[in-house]
Known about the structure:
Blueprint: H1 2-17, H2 25-32, H3 36-48, E1 52-57, E2 71-74, H4 84-106, E3 110-116, E4 122-129, E5 132-140, H5 148-157, E6 161-166, E7 175-177, H6 178-184
Helix pairs in contact: 2-3
Amino acid sequence: MIREVTLVEELVDLLAERMASPLSVNSLREDLQVDHKTVTSWIDALERLQVVFRVRPFSGSLARTLRKESKVYFWDWAGASPGGPRFENLAAGHLLKLCHWMQDVEGRRLELRYVRDREKREVDFLLLWEGKPWLLVEAKSGAAPLDRSLAYFRERLGVPHAIQVNGSGGAGKWIAPAVRFLAALP
């Protein structure tokens, strides 16, 4: 029993290192030297205890998208290492809360996903409104030029709205400072 608690703590540390990336349970299994089902059940338990939450990939009609590997984020993102993954985790938490708010207050089904293809083009978040792509959100921790994947997936999926949220500086047609974007969310 004590050994398993130590391994779960190690799993949490490994999840923190791999935050904001598609998660390979097989890689975690190898690192922890436990069964695949064990790692899966531990992640399920961490999710039920509201330590982490998963963002699943979008598996719509777009060819060559990844369909299996979820991303894992922490409800308390303060413990994450500074920079891009922490900022992406912050954005994920706020977008998931928006999904919950829409369900609870408006009775609307809003789902949080991400989209990535085999050519490694990726947009951090895709909100599905009643099951249809509605908003793409790319999170950048600093001031960054517009990510090409945002326009690529917006066109391919026919998404009506797309935005890149920059942690510092930058504003433009599809770019908004994080302070303004996050303040606009309920």
